[in-house]
Task: structure prediction
Amino acid sequence: MSAYALPIEIVLFQLLALLVAISVEAIVFYDRFVLTRRQSVEYSIILNLFSAIATWGLFFVVQKLLPETLRLELISLTFLGEFFRGVDIISVPSVLMLLGTINFLFICIVELSGSSLLQRLASIEPTKRPEASVSSSTGNESKKKAPPLMTVLALNDPDKAVTLLTANTFSNALIFLLFCILRFLA
Result:
């Protein structure tokens, strides 16, 4: 009989990190893109779930390719927060900063790729009939229906990469701050 352990701490931290990233990035997307609040949250959810899946996929691929000793150290550091054999050569904070920087760059690349993929998917989506704007009986046209998210994403925004980098910088900085606070309290 084999024993399995569920890393509750990692699952909870990943959920917290996703919630923080989605909310912070949605604020940036709402501010910089032509999106409604709901669309900016949806866009942020899509990109962050895509990047979280890609990050964990990369982690599991890399750990399979490593030699057994490094593999144990990586898994121990990720799931337990400490090295398996108490490595003295490398300090834990410097390794965490290096891994955090690599993770940040990877997430930026994945989210930019995901944004480009969404833009391409939006441009090949079958065209639907244009919907008329909703107006009141008094002729007030201030209540227009927002265009669908995929229609907005089809628009080419030249500052998309800068906006994604800004959103990721804000969200990762806040996640890092939360990580430091949680480490300090533990």
